Amino acid sequence: MAKSRSSSFITWFAVQILFVLVGALLTGFLTVFFAKFLARYISSVIAAPLAVGLGVSLTLWFTQLLKRPPFLLSGTSPLIAGFCAALGVYIARTWL
Fold it and tell me: Which residue blocks in the chain are alpha helix, DSSP H?
């Protein structure tokens, strides 16, 4: 029996949600790892945004290795995304 169109959409939607959750966990893990590692050598004011940038860049780079990345991430440059994330964290820490 063939799958209906709505059941394949629900399956694809569930895969997308799972991918976002796994990506968020990977980004968080890499950010904490890099923040702790970099805090040994440089100030934590600089280490935290740099760690976020590295975590985002590596996560997006890993998604580029997939055969069919999610449509929002397919054309995104990991370097630019990491830079924007690091800049956002640095500005947020400055204002707070």
Answer: 5-39, 44-64, 78-95
3-state secondary structure of 73: coil
CB 52 within 8 A of CB 44: no
- Mean pLDDT, consecutive 10-residue stretches, the chain (96 aa), reads 65 77 84 90 88 86 72 70 80 72
pTM of the model: 0.71
Residue 71 DSSP one-character state: T
Q: Please give the DSSP secondary-structure letter assigned to residue 40.
A: T
| Residue labelled with tokens 């029996």 | 1
Whole-angstrom Cα distance, residue 84 to residue 55?
12
The answer to whether the Cα torsion of 26, 86, 15, 69 is positive or negative is negative
Rounded CA gap, 47 and 87, in Å?
12
Q: Considering only CA atoms, which of 14, 27, 11 is closest in space to residue 63?
A: 27
